[in-house]
Fold this protein.
Amino acid sequence: MRALVVLIAFCFFAALAVKFAEPAKQPVRTVAIAKSDSPFLQAEAAAPAQARALLKQAAVLSRPDPAPAPKIQNAEPATIQVPKQPPPPPDSETPCTDLLAEDIAVMQLTSSSSGISGNELCGDEAPARLNGIKLRDGSIVQVTPAVMAKCEMAHEFARWVRDDLAEAARFAGSGLRRIHIDGSYTCRPVNNIKGQRLSEHGKANAVDIGSVTLANGKTFAIFSPEAPGILLASMRASACARFTTVLGPGADEAHRDHIHIDLAQRRGGYKICQWTMPNWPLP
C-alpha cells in the first residue's frame, strides 16, 4: 500500500515538471496584404524569389503607352524671319562712262558701226572717236586723222599718250604736239589677206601709228634712225607694258613703217611685243 502511494506521487510531480518545462507559445502576427487587380502583382507574392525579377519586367512592359499629345487644329506653319538683304550694287561703270568721266580726250561717242569681213561681223556698238588727248598741263595733243576705236581701247590709248608718250617727248627735249595715225577701225581680215581671221582693227580694238610731231615742229617716223633714241625706246617699253600686242619694224613686212597696238585677249594673258629699234648712227 505504501508503495502504491509513492508511485502516484512520483507520477504527479513528473507531470508538473513536463508542463513547466514547455516553452511559451508566441502569438502569430498576421499582415494584411492589400488586394490588387494586377495579375502580375498577385503572382509576385506567390512566386519564388528567382521569378520575381522577370515578373517585375513583365509588369513594366505591360504598362500602357502614354497618351499622344493633343493635335492642334489649323496650326500655322512656323516661319523664320530672315533679315532683308541690301539690294545688289549697281553694275560697274562701262568703259565708255569711265572714258567720259576721266575727261582725258577730245572725243565723241558715235553710233554703232558694223560690217562683214568674210563670215565675221565687224564693228562695235558705240565706238569712240578721238580727235585729241588732254595732257595734265592742260595742253592737247592732236590725233590725225581721228582714232575710231571701242571705248576700252580708246581709253587705254589716251592714257598711254598722256602718261607715257608725252613724258618720253619731254625727255627727248620737246613736248608732244601731234600723233599721225595710219589706221584704226577698219572692217578687214589680218593684214588685208583674204581668208584670214578678222583683224583686231575689224573689232575696233587696234590703232596704227606712223609718226609723231614734237612741239619744236620736228616730225619723226617710227622707223627713222633720226628719231631720238630715248623717244622710241620709251614708246616701245611703255606700249609693250600697256597693250597685249605691239608690232613694229622688224616684226614682219606689213609693219615695217608703223607700229600696231591692240588689246587682243589671248589664253593665259599671252602678250606679243615685236618692234626692233633702228640702227642709230654712232656719235
